[in-house]
């Protein structure tokens, strides 16, 4: 299993990055905030989890161990696969997710694209005794803003990747960026999703 990668960031895409290690480029699926914290042409480092299927091997990347642990924990719930777990990481920081799970905040859990009330309730029931109490040392992922000028486009790409049309996404992104120009990408994405009725 590939547990981590360190190397030159050769490409940053909609929902993935390519990191070159020893001449081999690894495509890694990541949350928008994780991609925003990396710079093309510079060295990057990611923790990774490999998901093996009959017809594919997919690498998922994380900025820190709380993200990675949450990714694995969420998948222990029936109906939550790796893509839903990654969507959760894209919308909520680990501390926010832990708090929502522990307190049964179904509304917050339903902010995650693809997770409805039934699955959110199942997440709360099955994981409430497994999540650690949020602390100041947890949930720091995604606190770096995207490179100047790229935040809006990154949010647009992320929303389109989640199924929204450009016509739907553009006003939500504009409003989110205007209201919180200094917020990290993960919070801006959450704000945009709220305005699009995913709250």
Write the layout of secondary structure elements.
Elements lengths: L3 E9 L3 E6 L2 E6 L2 H5 L6 E11 L2 E7 L2 H10 L7 H10 L2 H10 L2 H4 L7 H11 L23 H11 L4 H14 L5 H14 L1
Parallel strand pairs: 3-5
Antiparallel strand pairs: 1-2, 1-4, 2-3, 4-5
Protein name: Holliday junction branch migration complex subunit RuvA
GO molecular function: ATP binding; four-way junction DNA binding; four-way junction helicase activity
Subcellular location: Cytoplasm
Please characterize this protein's 3D structure.
This is Holliday junction branch migration complex subunit RuvA. Belongs to the RuvA family. With 199 residues, the protein is of the alpha+beta class. It has three domains: 59 residues, OB fold (Dihydrolipoamide Acetyltransferase, E2P); 67 residues, DNA polymerase, domain 1 (Orthogonal Bundle); 47 residues, Helicase, Ruva Protein, domain 3 (Orthogonal Bundle). Helix content is 45%, strand content 20%. The chain has nine helices and five strands; from the N terminus they run βββαββαααααααα. Strand 2 and strand 3 form a beta hairpin.
């Amino acid at each position: 299993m590939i547990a981590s990668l360190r190397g030159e960031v050769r490409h940053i895409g909609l929902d993935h990055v390519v990191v070159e290690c020893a001449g081999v480029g690894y495509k890694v699926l990541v949350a928008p905030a994780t991609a925003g914290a990396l710079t093309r042409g510079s060295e990057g480092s990611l923790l990774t989890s490999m998901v093996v299927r009959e017809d594919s091997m997919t690498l998922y990347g994380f900025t820190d161990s709380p993200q990675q642990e949450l990714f694995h924990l969420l998948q222990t719930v029936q109906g939550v696969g790796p893509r839903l777990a990654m969507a959760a990481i894209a919308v909520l920081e680990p501390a926010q997710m832990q708090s929502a799970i522990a307190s049964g905040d179904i509304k917050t859990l339903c902010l995650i694209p693809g997770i409805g009330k039934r699955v959110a309730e199942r997440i709360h029931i099955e994981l409430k005794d497994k999540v650690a109490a949020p602390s100041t040392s947890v949930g720091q992922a995604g606190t770096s803003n995207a490179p100047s000028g790229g935040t809006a486009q990154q949010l647009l790409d992320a929303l389109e990747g989640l199924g929204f049309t450009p016509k739907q996404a553009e006003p939500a992104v504009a409003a989110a960026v205007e209201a919180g120009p200094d917020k990290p990408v993960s919070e801006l994405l959450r704000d945009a999703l709220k305005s699009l009725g995913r709250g």
